[in-house]
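Q: Structure tokens for this one, please.
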Amino acid sequence: MVYVAGILGFIGGFILGQMVLHFLLRHKSTEELLNDKGLKYTYGLLCWAMAALGAYSFVSMYNLYFPS
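A: Here is the predicted structure, written as tokens:
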């Protein structure tokens, strides 16, 4: 069951990361987003970090509320 919590947390964190990226990159042009490699690595890493943090937090909450 802890795997389900991890997967749900990962998906939730990834969606939250996409929402944060949408907010942070709203003033960038389409051409700038496609051509600037620095944006891809910096903001892409941010999204994956949010997904990992979501998975970690859901697993931690699962272990707190359903100890084995």
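A few notes: The mean pLDDT is 93. The chain has one domain: 2-65.
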